[in-house]
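Following up on my earlier thread - several people asked me to post the actual chain instead of describing it. Fair enough. Here it is, all 137 residues.
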Amino acid sequence: MEIVPDAQKPARTAILLIAHGSRAPSANDDLRDLAQRLAATGEHPIVVASFLELAEPEIATGGDLCVAEGATTVLMVPYFLSAGVHLQRDLTAARDELQSRHSGVTFRLGPPLGPHPLLDELVAARIVELDRQASFP
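Reply from S.P.:
Thanks for posting it. Predicted structure:
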């Protein structure tokens, strides 16, 4: 069932964060926590965490939640390091499926997190941290 935003309401941009998903709940909580931190800034009225597989909500459900909250544009932000098969095939298909179900809403799929200079800086910082302390669990 298509949810069509009310033409009288102002444009609202939603952020749909997308991670692979894990059987380990704490791994999925990382993305949910990021969504809460982003929402707390107030910069975007709608921020939803979603998962390709192994966790809920799945991407389609997350997109539906954005639309139900009144999104007119959904920025689909992959929490993936590279443009592998999941991003090129699965996330593109999810975007296309959401777009076909919600014709009055724009769904835009972004690039992976890397390569990006900020990711380079993060890796360099982790190297310094690891060099100063014992390894992660």
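The CA atoms of residues 65 and 95 lie 14 Å apart. That should answer part of your original question.
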